[in-house]
Amino acid sequence: MSNARANLKLKSYSDHGQKHAHDHHQLVLPLVGTLSLSVDSKAGEVSSGKAAIIAAGHDHEAAADANRFVVADIPAALAPMLEKLPCFVHLDASLEQYVTFLHSQLKQGGDSTQTQHQMLLLLIQLLQERFGDKLRLDRRVETAKRFIDENYGRKITVSQLASISHLSPRQLNELFREQVGLTPHHYLTELRMQSSWQLLEQGELSIQSIADAVGYSSLSAFSDRFSQHFGYSPSYFRRFSK
Predict the structure, then answer these.
(1) pTM for the whole thing?
(2) What phi, psi does 153 have (nearest 5°)?
(3) How many CA atoms within 13 Å lie on the side-chain side of 95?
(4) How buried is residue 72: exposed, middle or buried, by Cβ count under 10 Å (0-12/13-18/19+)?
(5) One domain for residues 113 and 157
(6) What pLDDT digit, counting tens, does each position of 39-56 carry?
(7) Which residues pair with residue 28 across a beta bridge?
(8) What CATH number is associated with residue 167?
(9) What's the chain's average pLDDT?
């Protein structure tokens, strides 16, 4: 696989596979059946509520019965943090729901490169939040990040973040990207999109109220951003999550 692009697919495994390694990370997410895995001689399984994170370059082999999985091949450069996550993880209800959503989109042909990229970015972020170590940040970057985390429902500018961090906008952008992996603007957008997805899934607020809650005064601007980010409109996402 080329290191240039990510790939999301449905896959069934044979009863026994040869030991091998990839030059990319691989996520194996459960749908039907059980997959017994050995990753660098560490044994585990993918089954209901359990997933596997196979880091690039790690030897692994698998054995399975009748099965079906969502498999994501992710370039190592796109998500270096996956190297630090556990090989085998337990999925909470929110992650299980997201796997179901991925399965639905793949069955319906939601396989464009842009759509897959955005879906995988959110999946990686969710895994990092649940299973990754806390980031060790420069105190100025931490100040900016904390302000975004606590105020993403309000209008936030890079100039404002730079001022409270005692950095120039350019310095803040460079340090934030280096330590968090995204610019402040992109981090803010990802946070707003993740929150809006969770609120849509809960089904308690109207789409307009969700737009307001995540910092969009215009419903059309929110809908456009959500659609660009996930490839589907907020109303489509809400219909699916019911």
Answers:
(1) 0.60
(2) -80, -5
(3) 23
(4) buried
(5) no
(6) 988 999 999 999 999 999
(7) 52, 71
(8) 1.10.10.60
(9) 85
The strand pairing partners of 9, in sequence order, are 71
- 16/126 same-domain check: yes
- Judgement on whether residues 116 and 145 belong to the same structural domain of the protein: no
> Whole domain around residue 187: which residue ranges?
139-241
Span between the terminal Cα atoms of the chain, in Å: 36
Instruction: Decide: 37 and 43 in contact? Cβ < 8 Å.
Output: yes
pLDDT tens for each residue of 192-234: 987 888 788 778 899 999 999 999 989 999 999 998 877 778 9
Quick one: tokens of 30?
Answer: 């459960």
Q: Judging by beta carbons within 10 Å of its beta carbon (0-12, 13-18, 19+), is residue 109 exposed, middle or buried? A: exposed
Phi–psi pair at 78, nearest 5 degrees: -75, -35
Structure tokens at 47: 């089954």
Q: What total of structural domains would you count in the chain?
A: 2
Residue for token digits 């940040």?
137
Closest CA to 5 of 79, 82, 110: 79
